Amino acid sequence: MYTSIVIPTFNEVQNLHKIIETIFNVFRKNNLKVEVLIVDDNSPDRTWHVAEKLKDNYNIRVLRRVDKRGLSSAVIDGFKLANGEIIGVMDADLSHPPEKIPDLIKPIMSGESDYVIGSRYIKGGGIVNWPLLRRFSSKTAGILVSGLTKVKDPMSGFFFLKKDVIEGVNLSPKGFKIGLEILVKGNYKSVKEIPIIFTNRKHGVSKLNLSVITDDFAHISRLYLLKYLGI
Question: So what's the pLDDT on residue 132?
Answer without folding.
Answer: 79
